[in-house]
Amino acid sequence: MRKIRLTFFIISLISIISMMGITINGEINRMKNSSEDYKDKLIRFHVLANSDSDEDQELKLKVRDEVIAYLQPKLKNSKDIKESEQIIKNEYENLEKISKQVIKENGYDYDVSISLTYSDFPTKQYSSVVLPHGEYKALKIIIGEGEGKNWWCVMFPPLCFVDEETGILDKETDEKLKKILTKEEYELITNKNSKDATRVKVKFKIVEIIDNISKKRNA
Q: CB under 8 Å to 102, separation ≥6 — which residues?
């Protein structure tokens, strides 16, 4: 009788684990399939410091702040990614001047490289929005050797400017997201608050880990 109970318990446990695995796997596949299309509707912002020294990291953030302050009003009324791309490309020269001016004012003479290219990003939470890992088009600024830690946000729609403390998007940014994303894409990455977003972030992290394992196996 005891063996029968133990066998029943083991079978039940295996069934529960299997069902959980199927559910999680289905959710992961849904998230992966739904997250590919909207990546081409966003522009990220990627800044790489010269090195990991405290001074170079602080300089990176100063360059970031000035570039965001300059581009924010110019991208505010942009209707789509193509318009935003053109605005950014038209501002390459000014962005380089701004970056070099900040660098010079802080006592350095690093060179600056600016481009609009695809970069690999990890899973990231912006207030109540969670973006999965993957290749995104990004405004990329490399300071000096570009060997230090990087910093990133979303330039379009303007998630660089959301209020992280409130845990919710401002109405204007939320409306812009709704316009450029499909309903399914919008519901996938937006949440009622930052707590819900954190739970979604964990799911995206699982997808990221699984993808990284697959890449290593196929390498």
A: 59, 62, 63, 66
Residue 2 lies in a domain: no
User: Would residue 30 count as lying in a domain?
Assistant: no
d(CA 22, CA 168): 32
Report DSSP state, residue 184.
H
> What total number of domains does the chain contain?
1
Q: Which residues pair with 46 in a beta bridge?
A: 140, 152
In a domain, 118, yes or no: yes
Quickly tell me which residue has 């991208």 as its tokens. Answer: 75
| Cβ burial 7-44 (10 Å sphere, 16+ → b, else e) | eeeeeeeeeeeeeeeeeeeeebeebeebbeebbebbbb
Alpha helices in the chain (DSSP H): 2-35, 54-75, 81-90, 92-105, 171-180, 183-189, 194-218
Residue-by-residue pLDDT tens, the chain, 219 positions: 555 665 655 555 444 434 434 344 455 555 555 555 667 788 989 899 999 999 999 999 999 999 999 998 898 888 888 999 999 999 999 999 999 999 999 999 999 999 999 988 888 877 778 888 888 899 999 999 999 988 878 888 877 755 554 555 677 778 888 888 888 878 777 776 666 666 666 666 666 666 666 666 665
Asked whether the beta carbons of 59 and 106 are under 8 A apart, the reply is: yes
pTM value > 0.70: yes
For residue 101, being part of any structural domain is answered with: yes
**Residues near 62 by Cβ (< 8 Å), separated by ≥ 6?**
102, 106
